[in-house]
């Protein structure tokens, strides 16, 4: 049996060296535990071209712990920092095998335990027309392609990042050439689709690279048996953590009541964004509370946003709001009933209604 671990978009970087290399170590460990014969890195293994020279020795040391073969294609990020048209790989990145400068693709042929397969590795190319490639007649059980780009049937929305519209892939030539599995990279969220006998799959980035990449980070474990189609299983990488976002409301006095609940919902590996909104008397109070909380929260990275905060003083500059505020405060001061209403909630709702209807006839 041939079994490979399919991953892409690890974005190893000097800025996040310890974190990104720890995920690479888990990828290699996972491949060993799953008894994989191959690891496929389908582009953007490095975040920028200068990260290759800076991290190559660490990467090679980690990869040498894998006893099987490692196939790699450069993606668009390996080109970053280079003049346009420059081939991104000039360093020795063994034990990985990859297309060399001038090769439109590299072919690897494997036979293990009575199962044979062809692996075609295509380096990232914005202008490559896959329909012009002449594939020989298929004489093996499996054909696998390593590709980096946007398969439009799997990615409906091409934006807002220009990267999503970069290197459009057409899977039709691969379907006609009887490929069985397209090992895709470039899109950071996991997705897959079967077209007849062809399975097209993005495993998603194996670590949190950018904000908004929700959910566990995974790799694909793909098994090729003597009979049948590729069998795909997901494996979660615990060292990658998750991206988690919390939207909270501040009270008029600047307190954020639900802030204390977050610690129980995150791990030390997680990337966290906290967004706080609402109407407050002084937004600096909220900022100070968030700064203190950020120092105590145990996580990999934390970001706080207060863009949705509004100050009550700014709203009360509205004449109608000012009258509403003064009357509400008078009523609060002279309230005698034991059933005390939530004055803060009444104030916020009232000011929001006044703001919403401002300028309307």
UniProtKB/TrEMBL annotation:
Listed Pfam families: Metallophos
Record keyword Nuclease present: yes
Domain of life per record: Bacteria
InterPro entries, A to Z: Calcineurin-like_PHP, DNA_Repair-Maintenance_Comp, Metallo-depent_PP-like, Mre11_N
Location of the Calcineurin-like phosphoesterase domain: 2-189
Entry keyword set: Exonuclease, Hydrolase, Nuclease
Claim: Nuclease is one of the keywords in the record: yes
GO terms, molecular function: exonuclease activity
Protein name: DNA repair exonuclease
Organism: Leptospira barantonii
